[in-house]
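Subject: complex prediction, re-run

Hi both,

The earlier run crashed halfway through, so I resubmitted it with identical inputs.
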Amino acid sequence: MNGWTGQILRVNLTTKTFRVETFTEEFAHKWIGGRGFAVKILYDELKPGIDPLGPDNKFIVAVGPIAGIPAPNTGKAVVAAKSPMTGGYGDGNLGTRISEHLRKCGYDALIVEGRAERPTMLYLENDKVEFIPAGDVWGKGTYETNDWIYAKYGKGVGVLNIGQGGENMVRYAVVRSLEGRAGGRPGMGAVMGSKLLKAIVAKGTKPIPQADAEGMKKIGIEDLRKVQQLDKESGWSIQSTNGVLAWCNEVAALPVRNFRKTHHPDAWKVDGERLNNARIATYGCPNCTMRCGITIHDEAGRESELDYENVGLLGPNLEIFDLPQIGTLNYMCDDYGIDTMSGGCILSFYADAVDHGAVPGDIKFGDAEKFKDVLRRIAHRDGEMGNLLAEGSLRASRAIGKGSEAYAMQVKGLEVAAYNCKFIPGMALAFGVSPIGAHHKESWVITFEIKQTSRDSYGPEKAQKVIDLQRIRGGLFEYIVSCRFPWIEVGWGLENYPKYFNAVSGLHWTLDDFWTVSDRIYSLIKLFWLREYPDTHRKLDYPPAVWFDPSNADTEGPIAGKHLEYDKYDGLLQHYYDLRGYDKRGIPTMATLERLGLAAEAKAAEKYGSLT
Amino acid sequence: MKVTIKLIGPFVNQLGFSEKELEVPPATTAEGLLAMVKIDKARPKIVTRNGRAVAPAEEVQDGDRIVVSPIYSGG
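This time it finished cleanly. Structure:
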């Protein structure tokens, strides 16, 4: 089967056993890889209601059919499991040499089951699978763990690891790969920690089956050069993703003070220009042609890698306008293996709750020293408040009560990314219907919305744009498993992706074929949620309530007095459901499921929740 | 009349300034203002006036803040 190895490695940590399984061509064509493989495996194999942090959960690493070949920005892998944050399907992608090495070991996916008796590192080398004691680095951060791994196996291996956040099952702990940063916001690092799985290392040398390996190599190398040139011409990498901070500040979309405000006069101090001026190095993922990771020196002189999301949420959102201070908080998150986005939102939730008297404390917005202390306590679940905040803002607010739910900036239990949607209905919808909880990676409509539509509109054109982008960003790029930056930031054409796919698989797919796969995957994720939440309701697809609150509206600036409106948002949500073929709860109808080839999966869902 | 023009991202490096105040004649349009500072017309961009999108033919007003940014697409 060209394009795929046709094999999945299944490892059980409880019994220290492994098995190589094969999959059919039909499976490959229906789910492609990455997110597609992950959701199908988890849907078929997880019993609804299991504890995400218990041994019954499964941790998946899945790559796509263009992983490990020379093509622009393909050095990524998807990590997935039932989410400890949301209780629904959870995943994330990150740059890592695992993507290449897993394939060169002969696998398109890895399934990790059970729970190890003691801290363990999984080591794969071609056909070999070893369970290596990892007690030496249990309790250590991701940087030291990575060094330990490189000292053992050399720098060329593929690595996934966790820090203290994952070990202590902080629900928003991520998986780290120092070859390409972090992934798995909905607690994928906590799932590894719950299994006492400190790291996964892979080193493979087998050839990857391709229909036209020579042709692909030629195309891939040419295209790597072309994307590099596009990036150079555009100047995008000068400020990288943090270029958008100044723009968000200008259009009143920046999270400031736990999203209470949308802009701040000091925001320029941490914008893309300042980040570029402070740059000491630039990093990218394997096969990267437009490196987005800008590092600066934090307060202790350590290299800390910043992008817009972590600057926005650990900076202005906490009313911190000092790059080295933000760098320190970011470095701590990275070393602990804690998501910088949820981490920033939870710190701001806590400061807001204290500010409003919902919890006792003396933390104040802008106090970087106090935030560092709270972050340390969260990573170690130290003390009552550290332990509570390690649960995420939704759970913490429910425990605290006293109206603190209003300060939890989350959807479905996952905190929002760094776009303040007080008056950006389409982007609020994108957060609302993101299939893993609020995440910007699925659909990013904010520039379309502000440039090409009226900001006041709740019309179907916004719902359609959210779907179009979901098909590309949350679909194609998550199952073919490739970085979206060449397309979204420097205009590399989408038609290149079927070109790569067809070269490796020998198929003749068009983009339309891919959109069907995208819709299938989104629908199966919905069924996953339905089984976990049989009384599911459209309110689960609502953004944070504070964006609807007139008392929270800006009092000055471009959107003074403006806020989202419930009735209108609900209408926009209905447009989305209608265009998607979902019912009023946001669940795909039987007709939609059958059209997407999901009749068997629908039958499995009906044991737990009704379909229409 | 006076308007402020603010550049974002690579526009700063291309034109050599980040933000400046300009004296412009009455009835200057957004498009005309961009031409005055020699912004590449062909390059995709998003232009806002006081935080809201502005049409090329719209006239700028005294005290306006015009922001020119590449079309970012999200990290």
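The mean pLDDT of chain A is 96.

- K.
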